[in-house]
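Weekly modeling sync, notes
Attendees: S.R. (lead), two postdocs, one rotation student

Agenda item 3: backlog of single-chain predictions. S.R. asked that every request posted to the team notebook include the full sequence so nobody has to chase files. The rotation student volunteered to paste the first one in as an example of the format we agreed on. Action items at the bottom.

Example entry:
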Amino acid sequence: MEIDKKIILKLIQTLEELKKSIQGQNLNVSDETQEVKEDFVSSDNVVVKSPIVGTAYLAPEPGAKTFVEEGKKIKKGETVMIVEAMKTMNHIPSTSDGIVKKICVEDGAPVEFGQNLIILE
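Predicted structure, as returned to the notebook:
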């Protein structure tokens, strides 16, 4: 597949114009995004990441109690959520002991490989 150079040049020009138009503006970062960024500053936090691409489920079945909730103490190896991939339910274990500080995904949300699932302290 051959890409037209005119299209690439137009894209670059549009991006440069966008860059100039937002220069000097204060872009607000949502509180939730800011909170997650602040969590990474602390070195004693552990982040459990998704090992696969799929759909995250916080409970074993619809309407059931969730595996974890913020403030709950969990142990290494305990299931924190399920990631469904190709009709297979994959239990995601905690990588260490800790207290759940933040759940980074919503129930039924798609997740990518390496995406943060939960933050432990």
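Discussion: group reviewed the output briefly. The CA atoms of residues 47 and 119 lie 5 Å apart.
Action items: rotation student to repeat for the remaining queue; S.R. to check formatting next week.
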